[in-house]
Amino acid sequence: MKKVTRRILFWMPRVLTILFAIFLSLFALDVFEEGVGLREALAGFFIHLIPTYIVILFLVLAWRWEWIGALAYLALGVFYIMMTKAKFPLVTYLLISGPLFLICLLFLLDWLYRKKIRVH
Fold first, then answer.
1. Is the pLDDT of residue 24 over 90?
2. In 3D, which of 15, 48, 43 has the Cα closest to residue 30?
């Protein structure tokens, strides 16, 4: 595999995870529109950021151990679908679980490639 491809395979899941965390964080901003006090709004904001914290925590672990990222993002995607019980339109699942499954696949490919290098 070419050096450029290796770098892309390394960076792509990490960059996509950061972008996905930013995307998820945007949903936390809705607490500031509710007309509540600043203290309550900030508390709600940090609570709404819990999914982002989880995504970032798994990124920290996956940065070193790609297989953890593959399993974790697969689990998060499945967990979201199960928790919402398919009560939203398909586009909702494509926007939330879709990127998680893509990130899972990219971490898996990166892990398999690195494992292959270690064997040879």
1. yes
2. 48
